[in-house]
Amino acid sequence: MSQEEKKQKPINFRDVSICEATIQMLEKAAKDGVETAFTRAAEMKPCPIGADSACCKHCFMGPCRLNSKDPYAKTGICGATIDTIAARNFARMVASGAAAHTDHGMSMLDVFREVVNGRIKDYQIKDETKLRNVAASIGIEVEGRETMDIAKDLYEELERTYTQVEGEIPFAKRVPPKTLETWHKLGIVPRGAMREIMEIMHRTHIGVDQEYNNIVKQCSRTALSDGWGGSMVATELSDILFGTPKPIVAGVNMGYLKEDEVNIIVHGHEPNLFESMISSVNDPANIEKAKAAGAKGINLLGMCCSGAEVLGRHGIPHAGNFMSTEAVIVTGAVDAMAVDVQCIMQALSKLSECYGTRFFTTNPRAKIDGATHIEFHEHTPRECTDKIVEMAVNRFQNRTARIEIPNRRDLGIHGFSHEYVNYMLGGKFRGSYTPLNENIINGRIRGVAGVVGCTNIRVKHDYVHVECVKELIKNNVLVVQTGCSQISLAKAGLMKPDAAVLAGDGLREVCETVGMPPVLSLGSCVDNSRILIACAEMVRTGGLGDSIADLPVAGAAPEYMSEKAISIGHYFVASGVYTIFGVTFPSIEGTKFHKLLFEGLEEQGLGKWDFAVDPIEMAHKMIAHIDKKRMALGIMGERERKLFSMEDRRVS
Ligand code: NFS
Ligand code: SF4
Question: What Gene Ontology terms for biological process does this UniProt record contain (predicted)?
Answer without folding.
Answer: generation of precursor metabolites and energy; response to hydrogen peroxide
